[in-house]
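EI: anyone free to look at a 101-residue chain?
SC: sure, send it
EI:
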Amino acid sequence: MQYQQGDVLIETVEELPSGCKEAEDKGILAYGETTGHKHKLEDSNVKTYKDDRGNIYFKVEDHVKLKHEEHNAITLPPGVYRSWIVKEKDWVSGMVRNVVD
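SC: here you go
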């Protein structure tokens, strides 16, 4: 199952991969590049983890809302998730870059 809120894409995974480290910003999946707004999980007890590629993982024990000041909230059911920033390709230059929200 996949979910998207602006430039943040989320998908369910089987389990947290080995080698992930707990992230400093608990419950925050991404910051806005210009506004500083956050894609933040409502439950402050949700721990987030990062892998060496910048993907964020988190485990939800009960339904939780993902909030952002400029997007509708998304309710995620219990499970384990991976989150990352959506990429876009400029077909003229061939460059791939993060989508800016």
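EI: The chain has one domain: 2-98.
SC: 👍
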